[in-house]
Amino acid sequence: PSDAAGLKALDRDHYLHPFTDFKALGDEGSRLITAADGIYIEDDGGRRFLDAMAGLWCVNLGYGRQELVDAASRQLQQLPYYNSFFKTTNPPAAELAETLCGLAPDHINRVFFTGSGSEANDTALRMVRRYWALEGQPEKQWIIGRDNAYHGSTVAGMSLGGMAPMQAQGGPCVPGITHIRQPYWFDEGRDMSPEAFGKVCADALEARIQALGPDKVAAFIAEPVQGAGGAIIPPESYWPAIKEVLSRHDILLVVDEVICGFGRLGEWFGSVHYDLAPDLMSVAKGLSSGYLPIGGVLVGDRVARTLIDDGGEFHHGFTYSGHPTCAAVALENLRLMAAEGVVEQVRRVTGPYLAKHWKALERHPLIGEARSLGLIGALEIVADKAAGTHFDKTLKAGETCREICFEFGLVMRSVGDTMIISPPLVITEAQIDELIALATAALDETARRLQA
Ligand code: PLP
Description:
The chain is of the alpha/beta class. The chain has helices at residues 4-14, 54-57, 66-78, 91-103, 117-134, 155-160, 164-167, 185-188, 194-212, 238-248, 270-273, 301-310, 324-339, 342-359, 397-408, 429-451; strands at 33-37, 40-43, 48-51, 108-114, 142-146, 177-180, 217-222, 252-256, 280-283, 295-300, 367-373, 376-381, 410-411, 413-415, 418-421. The strands form three sheets. The chain has a seven-stranded mixed sheet, sandwiched between helices. A four-stranded mixed sheet has the order 1-2-3-13. InterPro entries: Aminotrans_3, Aminotrans_3_PPA_site, PyrdxlP-dep_Trfase, PyrdxlP-dep_Trfase_major, PyrdxlP-dep_Trfase_small.
């Protein structure tokens, strides 16, 4: 069928959606998204929504860029696919590898390509363990991640992440991974200053390392700003203290840049914003602005040297590692972002503009905290503004707000009672005004419904 009702019925009966409670879908089923342009998506009825989530944190350049379509089309005709296993490569993959290393901090000069962010984190995990084995320290096996982190849905991604509902389903996690607290000041640290809380969270890393034995810890993995966990922006004291602990114990740092990479925080990588100098960085999403699936691990010289010089063959790789068409689109995406100064625009103009106007939402009776950095932001919905307490979970305040946002023509994501934005990086100041006006209207309506 080509009619919307028919398609929705097919979807409801056959398509197992990610992270979706099927029984809760109801008779109406899913929204059918059929088109998009700039920062707006459109459904089958022609309704437009301001996409403040950039798809799923990925459409950094916005929708409808003909240059990306042309890059894919040219490459599909020239060489749609070939592998990189047989001592073979292809032009866009080679160029993309060089371009990425050029954008990354100086000590990063190698890339391993994957098809997704989950695969990138799986790859990083295997590289870390291989690295320490090659260094003659195979007992350095433990990986420390953070509670509530999302690093993907493969078994390794889920294990590196700290999402309890995921880990409760689908069988055991990869062994040798443990998690420490997240630097979530609003929910967990308000009895002290953000500064002090950042240090307390870094102390938790030190304590876990001591409990495991410093010579048994291989790596720490984290996002610069935790995305799917709730757009958790760490206190300024957090990363310097974490870095100090890791360097004292010679523990590798793996930074998951799947969301923060490619301009989200106003730098090409979140690691640059926080001066992290990571050993490995996993990337995906914004690398191609989500137009085609591609990810990778950017490998620092320390690990690359050992893997290459001492390692011989690394028995690891994906059919779609260095996929020519995905690489061609990613390359064009990065070229456009650089040519149009998209990252600088976030750093100098739209990030600060959002920060100023977003913060003003803290005056709303429903909002306990409004935080943002670059073009990632969160709102904490609270029942009691003075106490900063959330609504009873059964009220599903966040989900209610998300649905009302859709009614008002805005896509905001809810994580519990935290509302999140991560709009396309090409959003203008006028469009930020529009986003905030829609969010305010949706919050007013949410307050009315929650109180009814
Ligand atoms: N890492 C982070 C921080 C993510 O947000 C995601 C996806 O949302 C992933 C990894 C997994 O990426 P993918 O869905 O491409 O496998």
